[in-house]
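Changelog-adjacent note: as of this version, every example in the card shows the full chain rather than a window. The one below runs 409 residues end to end.
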Amino acid sequence: MFDIEEETIKLLKWLGGFGKDSAGGVTRLLYTQQWIEAQDALKKTMEDEGFSAYYDEVGNLFGTLKGKSFKDETIMTGSHVDTVKNGGIYDGQFGIVAGIVAVKYLKEKYGKPLRNIEIVSIAEEEGSRFPYTFWGSKNIFGIAKTEDVENIKDENGISFVDDMRKCGFDFKNEHNKIRDDLKVFLEVHIEQGGVLEIEKKSVGIVTNIVGQRRFNINIKGQANHAGTTPMRYRKDALVISSSIINLIMDLAKKYGDPLVATVGKIEVMPNIVNVVPGNSLFTLDIRHTDKNILVKFTDDIILKIKKIASKEKVEINIDMWMDVDPVPMNKDIVKVVKNQCDKFGVNYKIMYSGAGHDSQIVAKFVPTAMLFVPSHNGISHSPEEYTLAKDLAEGVKILIHSIYELAYK
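Full-length structure tokens:
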């Protein structure tokens, strides 16, 4: 008898062994030995299960169960195989494992589908080794740019291109035709937040992935003696930054959910106990599911920051280095997933994703839906990330039923 829960846990632990690090987590970065060993092992597993497995030029791995009727139509599922440094065994790789378990189950129970079913182990999503994200999914649809990566290096000075070629991969041929057989993409993923667990839901059906804007904000004041500079004459870059940060957070609370604003990093110079800070640099991450609200909030903030800088007579530089639009999931495919949850009595929540995923790239080209399972205590990107086996199995079951509707009917 096919035990979905047992099969899922077994494969998760097996795949999590590739890149197991000394700190108890998994470190499997793009184009490293651990990464290629994981991809090669997945390829062999796919072949052993009777799937036709192959790499594309950059190292995305595909395993296909051929359809018997509509051979130019493909239903795809999967996620990314790379991890953050010292990550866990669920983020990314659960989506790959869920795909393997689901297709294996369908093949054993129903035989050949009408349409092709394809599992993808996406080469890279995290940007954990090189300063570039979504290399895998962007290459599937021909939107990755050679010039963006040809001169980048990791923290050890190792070239992106050198290690890509060392692993046996290379840039895509720009003249190759973009695939037109992909009809649906389904990505199963851990939530990476605490909402589903808190609300006691087994599954989350994602309707939108948030847009993001990220900034570096630099305040240039005047460094001065901490004892001899009266408060009224100071141009304290840190104090001014603190005022701006408080203002941003207050405004974010007024806008309300689902807008979130985060200052995650602050650098102060000269960073000495008895010197008034002359320079302060902080990051700002803003997210929302509605592009218009995201733009309005950032416009409001920039205007207020400039007014403060003018009043305090300091120089300010605002650098927006990320501007990613929100991405809606396909309503028809979301409906398919929702119908399966209703049909099989799964306790689910309609929700948005506050984190970025490969689905936001794929959805621009292919009808896409995402399915979440709970993350215990909302923890992710950590060896402590954990999802109950029964919740993992619920996610896989809904994936199975959804693929059946899409590929066998």
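Structural remarks: The CA atoms of residues 3 and 105 lie 9 Å apart.
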